[in-house]
Amino acid sequence: MLEMERSQQYIPTRRFAVADQLRNPRRAFFRHGWAFLALPLAGCSSALLSTPGPREEKTADILPTEYLMYEHGILSRVLLIYEESLRRMGEGRDFPVDSLASASKIVRNFIEDFHQKLEEEFVFPRFRKERRFVETVNALELQHKAGRKLTDTITRLAAARDLEVPGNRLELARSVEQFVRLYRPHAAREDTVVFPALRGLVTPREFRLMGEEFEKRGEELYGYTGFYRVVDQVAGLERKFGIFNLAELLPEQAS
Q1: pTM here?
Q2: Is residue 139 a contact partner of residue 85, using CB atoms and an 8 Å limit?
Q3: Which CATH class is domain 64-242?
Q4: In this structure, are residues 101 and 159 in contact, taking their beta carbons and an 8 Å threshold?
């Protein structure tokens, strides 16, 4: 009980102001340059430029745990694509298999090779050092390894010619289902237990330096607008599956 209660004491509450972005365009990337769409001042919309109210000449940093949660948002949207693929396979319907393959590559390149490495290098060791939630972070890291194996299988099978082989469609469906079942609770546990507790395990300076290191690595790999380019890629795949328009996903009785 003590572990659970203490984990709730470090929920981030700071907010990032639009007007501050305009006053300091270099830090308009949530201080996580790759994670915010860079807009030159001359190209900003009039709505942004006319944001009312005086502001101090400073910005509010986005916490490193918030970076990780943004990345979980991408994972969650990929899981929606996986779930839609599963639904259609279960109904014996066709679906854009090439888009499923593209989604699995986003998982490999962005989630597994970048996001999870940040967790494994910076987050999990802190909990082991402080002997907090050790069983949880050990289980999460094992899930990373298991997820990579599933991604290998999904990527290999998500090719139209391979699905013509008897049994491959069933194996693909099974692997996608296992991946979804693995990562729904995985991301939820990190967002509600691990990330909120992290701030209580490090000094404010260490927390700031962690965020700066996340920024540096993200910029090296993806550039200033990398996060939103990945978001756009996922949105394009959602369109191919017909699940991008939220209004079309309402239940009939609610539409």
Answers
A1: 0.77
A2: no
A3: mainly alpha
A4: yes
